[in-house]
Write a structure and sequence with these properties.
Helix content is 19%, strand content 29%. With 330 residues, the chain is of the alpha+beta class. The protein is globular. This is DUF8094 domain-containing protein.
Length: 330
């Protein structure tokens, strides 16, 4: 006989620690009615989220038009801020047009109970107002340093409307968190996703059908053909960025947004040089320039699912450059 399904509980922390819903309980006599459950309010409600997204849209569009990275620090952090800052420099170097104005609105809100954590998700779905003109579906994680600090957009995942996304389980108006077993499955899924980013090879239990450019993270950077010990060295690494995943319970298991950062470092020796690509050039490096060394770092936001049956899935997005340090050949 299979074990009963664990009872989900409200979220309490970034890594999915749990807390009670704050039920009032005690001895109840024959003449005394049971005290009704006191359900805690989430850290953010629909009205506050709508105001936050309006401010995000206005500030972001103004910053994009002026390519003002400093202005973004009031509304973004982490990989969103780093990739946007780099994009401004790349647009200037390449003579590219500024990003067109875009309005974001909240989707399904999944937030822990007030006073238990400082993060919340806005999760998009095909056809809802959070989908940008039907072109992509936007799912986001906001974090803040404390209850008195501003909310900052930390992770942003844009997916094709055809890609199925998990739905959060909500209880009493707040997000529902995983038990220890689900957390362990989530941690294992994260390891499989990181191994896939590093090698391009997926574990048998990991579905990478919708991995997008996470599938090419292990080859990101500038290509260098026929590299030998005599001509130089290449090092590659991939790791998760902070903050730690904030796990949500779904009908099939748990899921969380995360960001994978991958770096390629190449040093050529003995007079060897290599050209940058003439197409698909990254960032501020001129196309076709000859280099003797470089470091290229890109990030990719992912949604990681860990299912109760032991399988897992990753939904990826496009690679976003955040660093291109180069040494031009003499």
């Amino acid at each position: 006989m299979p074990a009963p399904r664990p009872v989900a509980r409200p979220l309490a922390g970034l890594v999915g620690a749990v807390a009670s819903l704050g039920l009032l309980s005690g001895c109840v006599g024959a003449e005394v009615a049971a005290v009704p459950a006191q359900v805690r309010e989430p850290v953010i409600d629909r009205e506050a989220a709508t105001t936050l997204f309006a401010s995000l849209s206005t500030t972001r569009n103004t910053a994009n038009a002026a390519r003002d990275a400093a202005a973004l620090t009031s509304i973004t952090t982490g990989p969103v801020l780093r990739s946007s800052t780099f994009a401004f420099a790349a647009q200037t170097a390449q003579g590219a047009a500024v990003v067109a104005p875009h309005t974001s609105v909240p989707g399904t809100l999944a937030a822990p109970a007030a006073g238990t954590a400082d993060w919340f998700y806005s999760l998009g779905a095909p056809g809802d107002p959070a989908a940008s003109d039907g072109e992509f579906v936007e799912s986001t994680l906001f974090t803040r340093a404390s209850a008195d600090a501003p909310w900052l957009l930390t992770y942003q995942l844009a997916t094709d409307p055809a890609v199925a996304l998990p739905h959060p389980v909500l209880g009493g108006g707040s997000a529902v968190g995983p038990d220890d077993g689900a957390l362990a499955r989530g941690a294992a899924a994260l390891e499989d996703v990181l191994a896939f980013a590093r090698t391009g090879e997926a574990a048998p239990a990991l579905d990478v059908t919708d991995a997008d450019q996470l599938a090419t993270a292990h080859t990101q950077g500038f290509p260098v053909a026929d590299l030998s010990p005599e001509s130089g060295t290449e090092e590659r690494s991939c790791a998760y960025e902070a903050p730690d995943p904030a796990w949500l319970t779904s009908p099939d298991g748990v899921f969380a947004l995360a960001s994978v950062e991958c770096t390629q470092s190449v040093t050529l020796t003995g007079g060897w040089t290599a050209p940058t690509p003439t197409t698909g050039t990254l960032g501020t490096v001129p196309p076709g320039a000859r280099l003797s060394a470089w470091t290229v770092t890109q990030t990719v936001t992912v949604l990681v699912e860990a299912h109760d049956d032991g399988t897992s899935r990753v939904v990826g997005s496009r690679l976003r450059p955040v660093r291109t340090d180069v040494t031009l050949a003499p």
